[in-house]
Amino acid sequence: MTSLRSLGASGIEVFPLALGGNVFGWSADRDTSFAVLDAYTRAGGNFIDTADAYSFWAPGNEGGESERVIGAWMKARGNRSDVVVATKGGALPAHKGLRAATVRAAVEDSLRRLQSDYIDLYYTHYDDESVEVGEFLTALDELVKAGKIRAIAASNISPERLQEALDFSDREGVAKYVALQPLYNLVSRDTYEGRLQEVAGRGGLAAVPYYGLASGFLTGKYRPGTTVRSVRAEGASKHLETERGRKVLAALDEVAEAHGAELATVALAWLATRPTVVAPIASARTPEQLTALVALGDLTLTQAEVGKLTAASA
User: Fold this and answer.
1) Cα distance between residue 9 and residue 18, in whole Å
2) Catalytic residue among 54, 122, 123, 184, which?
3) Which of 204, 249, 183 is nearest to 20 (CA)?
């Protein structure tokens, strides 16, 4: 059985793959979403990632669709205490930014959609540099003290502001970020490695990278001369045009063949070896797609294989 990992200093234990909920209520309908969630938890998974903004960009959607699906699923299964739900606020047009009143309203709406009394991990989705860190951290601290949030985290934030936020929490004794959700994968390393990773490491934060499979590119289904029908096809296929993208695919092919594994499993396993990373995020539109993702917990790469992938992605 795959062992759980500690989510920073939160005391929360999570499966080494976070299930991305961005597809729920968007490219996966309610029934399919329920099937994916069921398959994930049957495989031992317990860490579900969503946001209030998912998926306001889709025609006919207003945002909150993913949270509603997850909330309805947890109610139907009666398993709220068995899963760790992470959601984010600050990007939904109706609750844009990180003013204290906005944060409070966003959290209340997320709780209602999730049909839950609490959120396990709450992210500031995008930093709002027009607001002092003390304002939103104090508001989040009040929500933690009220039992509505168990732990807080950040996403899409500069190293400088992250350090400022950590310093404020230490100085004022308020809730402190325990995790960071950066863009990070084999074809996008400079989005995390360097100063941001250093700040996270010093602060003891758990990294939970998004776009772990580079919008599906690292599954290997995007190849020269192929056409993939997907809402993410344009973003993923662009990596074929780069030398790094082609080198990474070649290295993934070699390592995957050695293990009899899917490319997606290998790509996520590499990410899981990186300093500070606790659980990469990946989403599945069908239960079949999920198989390669949850296999991450059972795949151990050799030092040479990690080196091969690291070199190809440089």
Assistant:
1) 18
2) 54
3) 183
Is the CB of residue 209 less than 8 Å from the CB of residue 180?
no
- C-alpha distances (whole Å) from 33 to each of 40, 46, 248, 289 are 11, 15, 31, 12
Q: For the segment 205-222, what is each residue's pLDDT rounded down to a tens digit?
A: 999 999 999 989 999 988
Report the candidate in 126, 56, 59, 133 with the shortest Cα–Cα distance to residue 90.
126
**Maximum Cα interatomic distance, the chain, rounded to a whole number of Å:** 57
> Are residues 306 and 312 in contact, defined by beta-carbon separation less than 8 angstroms?
no
Q: Is 211 a catalytic residue?
A: no
Report the distance separating Cα 142 and Cα 204, nearest Å. Answer: 22
* Torsion angle of the four alpha carbons 205, 219, 25, 180, in this order, in degrees rounded to the nearest 10: 10
State pTM to two decimals. 0.95
Question: For 53-96, what is each residue's pLDDT tens digit?
Answer: 999 999 999 999 999 999 999 999 999 999 999 999 999 999 99
